[in-house]
Amino acid sequence: MAQGEVRAVLKGCGIAIPEVEVDNHMLARVLETSDEWIRARSGVVTRYYVEPGVGSSELGAQAARSALADAGLEAAEVDYIVCATMTPDHYFPGSATLIQQRLGIEPKPAIDLRQQCAGFAYGLQMVDALIRSGQAETVLLVGCDVHSSLIPFPPRSWQVLLGRQPPPAPPEEFEWNSRFRHLVVLFGDGGGAMVFRAEAGGERGIIGSRLLGDGNEKDILYVPGGGSASRPFVDAEMIAAGRTVPVMDGRKVFKLAVTKMPEVTRELLAEQNMSLDDVDLLVMHQANLRINEAAQKALALPDERVHNNIQRYGNTTSATLPICFHEAREEGKAPEGAVVAFVALGAGLHWGAVLLRV
Ligand code: ACO
User: 8 C-alpha to center of ligand 1: Å?
Assistant: First the structure.
């Protein structure tokens, strides 16, 4: 390896988008909502769902294969797997070893991160640490989530939603589904992956990161039932009461996101002796287009230096940053040498920013 500071250099990026496209009108078949409300409040127009039985590791492995192809690397060359997901295939193990298995490679260190919408940003920090410390040379970072698994619609509602049975949904199902309307309309399934390699002496690579967590804000976005704080872990009463579905105080999350995402971006730039003028592209977590418009305004960045795609994919949680970056790069917004600021906020509360020179 050449002399000089070792950095984690991006070698490839890939995504996995499920085939089932669901627009707002389809959701309105099974719950009280409208295309107009969803677009106006969140910007979301469509999202994609996997078929039943497809877990996050399948999307993660698909994105990983495409990132490896983009990097011109073989899966066997990966020597560390980091997977961010809040929807692993099983409560345990996580999805990282399942991705290793799906890639058909020898045993590798494989770790899952549980930082929800900030998971991929935490993953970037971990990749940087692994590579700078010499623990790994080639790291695969995956973000994958299957939110459709958390949507509590009964089977008949799913069939009506997908146009596989004629409407209407039974009235009691319509009422039940509508209880969760503020949540379900926002999310989609997806996967994204990046491959990083240790390179010395160049300018490219992860520049730095600032990630934070604060459990005092746990209650604004969490799943009350199903966990070690309950005995039993889960029971029928919990499910019937809807307590295995996330609760979200949307307004509070919104307020924190529009304050903390710009704040942490500025703090990181200051730590790195850089300014917003040095940022060629801002890639934010895609939770709500209105959040991102407010954050962009707070940072006074012009449209050509920001990329959003929540309109098409909804909030895919751990996958939003790589999917958004991938699309921006395909549109020529992140050429080699460009400085990209990634920023995210999610349940926990976790939030943070990472700077990468592509
Ligand atoms: N369709 C129609 N009406 C709806 C829907 C819907 N899907 N959802 C809620 N409403 C209604 C409400 O019931 C309410 O009606 P009311 O006035 O009769 O009581 C009205 O719309 C306004 O509801 P609010 O919740 O006040 O709407 P708000 O403008 O706050 O928008 C939203 C809600 C879109 C959820 C917004 O608050 C938001 O996006 N917050 C951030 C969410 C977020 O970032 N989550 C992070 C996920 S990250 C992770 O880590 C998983």
Answer: 38
